[in-house]
């Protein structure tokens, strides 16, 4: 750590007028003519090495991975299951315990994989719904009604669900963009 030093007093070499002139000179801007030609920078070699933005995503290679996982789990399970009778015949209890442990690990891995695939499917469905909802203002009223029906089915709402019934009661004829503006204020006719 440094030791504290006494304060120093500095004198200004510039007079106050010169300092004000320097400040004005710094704050000025340069105006460019609108007729000057614009020359873009030459592309960098790194930019040339990148693939074009128009290229699509690479194709997915799921089947090979799925084949390897299912094949490995299936063969491992078969090996462990067929080893149990041999271990029981020879009274190798520790071998039986290890084989049951291996089977349970493979089973837990398979269950977690299936759960994750279900979550991914639900996530894809939510992503598709989100993109459809983003395009909702551009769609026709019939398409919007069909989307509401699809949401009702996805949420597993019954036809007599109070929220669905409230939505149907709130839906008015003037909401569809067609219809007579003079009859928009009239309540829907009740079935008699």
TrEMBL record:
Superkingdom in the source lineage: Bacteria
Keywords, alphabetical: Membrane, Transmembrane, Transmembrane helix
Region annotated Disordered, chain positions: 168-192
Residues spanning the membrane: 63-84, 96-114
Name of protein: TIGR01620 family protein
Native source organism of the sequence: Vreelandella olivaria
């Amino acid at each position: 750590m440094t030791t504290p030093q006494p304060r120093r007093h500095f004198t200004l070499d510039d007079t106050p007028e010169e300092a004000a002139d320097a400040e004005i000179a710094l704050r000025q801007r340069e105006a460019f003519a609108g007729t000057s030609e614009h020359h873009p920078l030459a592309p960098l070699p790194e930019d040339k090495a990148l693939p074009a933005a128009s290229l699509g995503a690479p194709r997915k290679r799921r089947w090979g991975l799925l084949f390897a996982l299912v094949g490995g789990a299936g063969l491992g399970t078969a090996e462990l299951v067929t080893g149990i009778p041999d271990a029981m015949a020879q009274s190798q209890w520790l071998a039986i315990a290890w084989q049951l442990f291996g089977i349970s690990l493979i089973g837990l891995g398979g269950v977690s994989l299936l759960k994750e695939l279900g979550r991914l499917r639900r996530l894809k469905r939510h992503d598709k719904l989100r993109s459809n909802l983003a395009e909702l203002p551009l769609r026709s009223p019939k398409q919007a009604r069909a989307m509401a029906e699809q949401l009702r089915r996805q949420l597993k709402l019954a036809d007599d669900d109070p929220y669905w019934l409230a939505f149907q009661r709130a839906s008015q004829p003037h909401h569809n963009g067609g219809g007579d503006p003079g009859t928009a204020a009239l309540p829907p006719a009740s079935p008699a």
